[in-house]
Amino acid sequence: MIRLLVAGGTADERSLVANMLLPQSDIDVVLADAASTLSTARESNPQVVVINADPSGTDVAVTIDSLTTSLPTVAVILLSVHTGLNEVRSAMRAGARDVLSNPPNADELLASIRSAFELGAQRRASFSQTLDSKAEQPRTAGKIICVYSPKGGVGKSTMAVNLSIALRSLTNGLVCLVDGNLPFGDIGIMMNLVAKKTIADLIPTVNDLSPEVLDSVLVGHESGVRVLLAPTRPEFAELIQGDHIKKILEALRSQNDYVVVDTWTSFHEVVLAVFDMSQEILLITTLDMPAVKNIRTFLEVAEALRYPKDQITLVLNRADSTGGLRIPDIEESIQHKFGANLVSAGALVTSSINRGRPFLMSDPDAPISKNVMELARRVLQPADRETLGQTETPAVDPKRRTVFGRILSAR
Ligand SMILES: Nc1ncnc2c1ncn2[C@@H]1O[C@H](COP(=O)(O)OP(=O)(O)OP(=O)(O)O)[C@@H](O)[C@H]1O
Ligand SMILES: [Mg+2]
Predict the structure, then answer these.
(1) pTM above 0.90?
(2) Quick one: fold of 2-135?
């Protein structure tokens, strides 16, 4: 039996759909107006919802989002008089499976309901499996480490790639690298990976990210690190919002020991969402005045927002190219100590990027590789620190949240 909720729109629109489905003895129809859509959905627990765009102009995407959030395995079909591109995009982003014109063609509607039900059945099976397997093996949540710099081109991606490999080789744990440079991600090139699927493929199922769904999108690297690649085109990146990133990172965190996120230099809501989710921010800089000025500004913003200072590790890249600036003077000026250094290694870094083979693998004994290993040891989870015989540092509360989010909500 398919439990179907026909929601929203006018009473006539709802009865029209219900009448179309009358001959289908295996479809059990419940009706609800726009105001009672969510409460009726919670009571009747439908597998499929056919929702009419509300004539009063209420944003139907908001209702779809609430439906898919409170009933993670439900499949939503939107009926809309104006099936313009923008409306379709926002409905899909909110989690709709299909969009049909209103009034619908009876055959199309039935085919859409049946296919949504079938797809939902697979998702329900994997969802309950996920719950079962989670119940069997409770795992500690992974640590999200974000790599950021307030000036572009200073080595974020180089650092993110090699740090993930270092974490994997040190702990043999599950390490996921997220190319969070959504508009211009280059991790795929740096690691010589082919983007069969990217983060954009997770958006339609962002409210139901089972391990199977994540596995189907992550690309394995020979180091054992699994990579979530950036969209192949900048316009796909525009579809991804801060809330999507939060849900994706939360899901990845529950399935991995470490999630390293590369970013891009911006205060875009996606980057702020990454900050909010991270237990550690690696702030990369080089020793030149523009970079230092931007670091100072960033640290001031972070302090104003009460982002814990001990969760920001300042990393000096090309530490041996100081251009006449003295490290203690810079530390004094920005009121923050450098926590790690990376030496310059022009030829090695460039050739490793061009060949798509990270230097930590091709040249593990190079000074820069040793620097990255040192940094990896610094950001270990307490349990790994203990296993590897290192001194304990205070655990970071993974529940600490939304300091940067305040910027968003203040907008
Ligand atoms: N320690 C280093 N020694 C020598 N070259 C380096 C070092 N770190 C980074 N580079 C070089 O600097 C350039 C920029 O590095 P990378 O792409 O990692 O920076 P990014 O901060 O991710 O840039 P973007 O802001 O464009 O994403 C690359 O060409 C890389 O080869
Ligand atoms: Mg980069």
Answers:
(1) no
(2) Rossmann fold (3.40.50)
